[in-house]
Amino acid sequence: MTITKEDLAAISPDELTPLATEVKAEKLAETKAAMPFARCFVSAMLAGAFIGFGATYFCVFLGDPTLPFGVQRVVGGLCFCLGLVLVLCCGAELFTGNILMLCGKASGKISWKGLGRSWAIVWLGNLAGSLVAVALMYFANVQGMNSGEVAQAFVSVAAGKVALDPLTLLFKGIMCNVLVCLAVWIGYSAKTVADKVLGILLPISAFVACGFEHCVANMFFLPMGLLLNGAGIGAAGSVTFAGLAYNIVLATVGNIIGGALVALAYWYAYRTRA
Question: Which of the residues 34, 35, 224, 236 has an alpha carbon 20 to 30 A from that of 98?
Fold first, then answer.
């Protein structure tokens, strides 16, 4: 039995069904894999900057060290949601969300070469956009807010990330992208901006509250922490370039694994058959 677009629309007036969402994920994978280099890279830069904006909002909130732990984690997590809201609602290419392109690969809609090319361009574009966001926030002196407490928050967050042991970091990366890809999946199923925003809030705030590791967010957190630590904020040497590279590489691997779990589970459960 073949399911048509009209059938899907008729049975899902408010949101796409899981089956229709999986079909959409495959179609998006084809579109993303075929995107020209320049357009893909610039769109990825936007996503990296957007996640940096959310990370900044998070650290500005943490710039009040008197707040209780629970308030810091939950409300700070909601602040961080700004990044994915901008990515999904404004349109941009985010590496962690693009792990869902595996739905298209599993169905034979795209090749390994197309998948790898897209992931590589987007990862590098996210890094470039994150570094642009670091420069923008640094020269705007966001770190100077609340008598420098925001700078302390930036360095504290970065120092905590580079101090993680490898196994913990890997699994924090896996769990992070399970939640991020579920948020993106909700975004795929949504038909309105309000639906997307509401769907993003709980999964993304949960991953932040739990301290999971997002490689693109860390492309902002760690360079900002390194820059400020080098300027004398926090304990000397608490954030290093080697620590930055260590964290981002392992977080990336964990994010790929976590995203693959979501993509392949939904592909297997809801893929259509001729």
Answer: 224
**pLDDT digits over 216-268, tens only?**
999 999 999 999 999 999 999 999 999 999 999 999 999 999 999 999 999 99
Tens digit of each residue's pLDDT (9 = 90 or more) over 199-219: 999 999 999 999 999 999 999
Both tokens assigned to 89: 């609602």
Are 132 and 49 in contact, with CB atoms under 8 Å apart? yes
Determine the 3-state secondary structure of 229 from DSSP. Answer: helix
- Spatial distance between the Cα atoms of 138 and 159, rounded to a whole number of angstroms: 18
Burial 226-256 (b: 16+ CB within 10 A, else e): bbbbeeebbeeebbbeebbebbbebbbebbb
Out of 1.10.10.10, 1.10.238.10, 1.10.4160.10, 1.20.1080.10, which CATH number does the structure's domain 16-270 have? Answer: 1.20.1080.10
SS3 sequence of 54-119: HHHHHHHHHCCCCCCHHHHHHHHHHHHCHHHHHHHHHHCCCCCHHHHHHHHHHCCCCCHHHHHHHH
Dihedral (CA of 63, 68, 73, 77) sign? negative
- Among residues 27, 48, 21, 35, the alpha carbon closest in space to that of 181 is found at 21
Tokens standing for 146?
Answer: 């609340």
Q: Which residues contact 41 (CB under 8 A, 6 or more apart)?
A: 121, 124, 125, 128
- The region, left, alpha or beta by phi > 0 then psi within -120 to 50, assigned to residue 194 is alpha
- Say how far apart CA 217 and CA 251 lie, in whole Å: 10
Q: What is the pTM of this model?
A: 0.93
Distance in angstroms (rounded) separating the CA atoms of residues 191 and 14? 7
